[in-house]
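Side project, low priority. Logging it here so it doesn't get lost.
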Amino acid sequence: MGAAEQNMSSARSAAAGRVGLRRIVLPLALLAVFAALSVCVAVAVGSVPVGPAELWAVFTGDGAPLHRTLVIELRAPRALSAFAVGGLLAAAGALMQVLLRNPLADPYVLGVSGGAAVGALGAMLAGLGAAVVSGSAFAGALLSTLLVFGLAHGTGSWTPTRLLLTGVVVASGWGALITFLLAVGPTDQLPGMLYWLMGDLAYARTPWMALAMLAGICLLILPMARSLNVLARGPLQAAALGVPVRVVEWSVYVVASLMTAVAVTTAGSIGFVGLVVPHMLRLVLGNDQRLILPAAALAGGALLALADTLARTLIAPEQLPVGVITALLGVPTFLFLLYRSR
C-alpha cells in the first residue's frame, strides 16, 4: 500500500510539473511568434512597401538591389534596435517592480535616464560625434546608478523605500541640469536634443550591443527567477526560506540599471514600455517571474517595434519620435489596466 501511494504521489508530481511547464512554454511560444511577426512588419512597412515574397527573396540572398538596401541597411537594423530596446526596458521594469515591491515602478524611477540625458546633451553641445554621444550617455547612466546606490546605502544598509526616494531626488537634480542645458543650447541644436529626450530610433544603426545585452541578461536572470518569486513576498519571508536577500537585491539593481543604460544609450528616453508591459503581463499571466521576465522581453520588444513602425509611417515622409507613440499608447492603456485592477 505504501509503494502504491508513493507511485501515485510521484505520478501526480510529474503531471503537475508537465502542467506547470506547459503554462510557461505556451505563452512564451505565442509571444515569440508575435515578436517575430512584429519585426517582419517593421521591416516590410514603409514609404516603399516590401511584400512577403520580396522579403523572403532578400533574406535568402536574392531580391532586387533596392529591396536589399531598404531591408538590410535601413529597416532591419532599426527594427532590431527597437526590439532590443523594448525588451531591455520591459525586462528592467519587471525587475524594478520586484526589487521595490511596487507595481508602478519603471526603469527610469532611479534617475538612470536623467544621467544618460545629461551626458548625451553635454556631448551634443560640445559638437561631438554620434559615437561619443552614445558613450557619454552610457557614462552618465552608470554615474547616476553609482550615485543613487551610494547615497541610498550611506553608512548602513538600504531599503527599497530609501532607494526609491534617493532615486527620485537624483532624478529631479538631473532634470534641473537638463533644463539648464536646453536653455543655454544653440537654437540649431535644440531639435536634435529634444528628439533624443523624447526617444528616437532614427540613428540606431548597430543593434548588436543591445541584442547581446538582452540575450545575456535574460540567460543570467532566469536562474534567479525562483528567488525573485520568494523575494516578491517580502525580505523577511525570503530570508526565512534561505534566499540571500541582499545579494539578490544588489544583483537585480545592477542588472536593471545596466539594461536601462544600454536602452537609453541606444534610443534615448522612451517612456511607458517598462511600466505598462510588465504590469499588463502580470494581470494576464500571474506573477511567476520564470514566465514574466522572458515574456516581458518578448512583449516589450514587439511593442516598441510596432510603435516605431507607426512613428515612421503615421505622418510620412515626416517621422515622429517613437517616445511620442509609446506615450500616446501607454497612457490610455495604463489607465484602463488600473480601472480593471480595482
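Brief comment: The longest helix spans residues 2-44.
Revisit when time allows.
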